[in-house]
Specification:
Keywords: Isomerase
InterPro entries: Chorismate_II_sf, CM_dom_sf, CM_II_prokaryot
GO molecular function: chorismate mutase activity
Shape: elongated
Largest sheet: none
Oligomer: single chain
Number of helices: 4
Number of strands: 0
Order of helices and strands: HHHH
Distance between the termini: 52 Å
Protein name: Chorismate mutase
EC number: 5.4.99.5
Length: about 110
């Protein structure tokens, strides 16, 4: 753009919209980073609980607890919350030493 000329109003609006979107996308990325870190923390904690349970001869999971988690997510987020809870519970399942979940949890300890 030549010196001394201002962008047309439509160009200015488009630039501001694009900049605003970039700011918002950056905020979304930051939230995603926090969610990923929280999920990794959850995996590590749940794996520790499940290891302790199985070492004591008990079941690795408690279905009543999983039902509570599913209900909590469902009550807050509806059907997509139920789906999210099921995926999260699956991700947190203890798969023993050397598993991908155990390795991931160890990296974030």
């Amino acid at each position: 753009m030549p010196v001394g000329t201002e962008p047309a109003p439509m160009e200015t609006t488009a630039l501001l919209t694009q900049l605003g979107e970039e700011v918002l996308l950056h905020q979304v990325d930051a939230i995603d980073d926090r969610i990923i870190a929280l999920v990794a923390d959850r995996v590590a904690l749940v794996n520790e609980i499940q290891r302790d349970r199985t070492a004591a001869g008990g079941p690795g999971t408690r279905l009543s607890r999983e039902t509570q988690v599913i209900a909590r997510y469902g009550n807050s987020l509806g059907r997509p919350g139920v789906e999210l809870a099921l995926r999260l519970l699956n991700l947190c399942r203890y798969r023993g030493r050397g598993s991908a979940a155990a390795a991931q949890a160890a990296r974030h300890s």
